[in-house]
Amino acid sequence: MRNNYLKVTxxxxxxxxxxxxxxxxxxxxxxxxxxTLLDKDNEIERIVFLILTKKHTSRLEEYYGDRKVxxxxxxxxxxxxxxxxxxxxxxxxxxxxxxxxxxxIVICLGLSDIELFTVSKNESAKYMIAIPSxxxxxxxWVFAERxxxxxxxxx
Length: 155
Hints:
By secondary structure, the chain is of the alpha/beta class. 31% of the residues lie in helices and 21% in strands. Strands 3-4-2-5-6-1-7 form a seven-stranded mixed β-sheet, sandwiched between helices. Strand 3 (77-78) and strand 4 form a beta hairpin. The longest helix is centred in the first third of the chain and has 17 residues, at 24-40. The relative contact order is 0.24.
């Protein structure tokens, strides 16, 4: 008797961009992939830019080029073309938000393994995209979570 196996393909939830330092192209790639995930998953409620502290906004300031936008992102802001809202959170302020549901795409900016593992445990974080300051600082998380390099693969 032959066994029939059901092949289940789960959508990846952990990603990284193989880069270092200020890289506006990495931000473009993260936002493009976030839009793709948003279009596929109607449970997503927001996209979070996760930074270490409120003083670590330089990547966002470089990308958006306007301090007003950064101030608005701390409160929450919508952008054309996205059917959700964006918010800046810090490691301290990013709390369980979803009442048991995974609802966030979290773009982690300049975080290390330790912070990334903490975010991985947060039930609100459905998808994570890490953009490191130093690539070697996320190697443990990439290996343990089997994160996919967005510069090599697209789901």
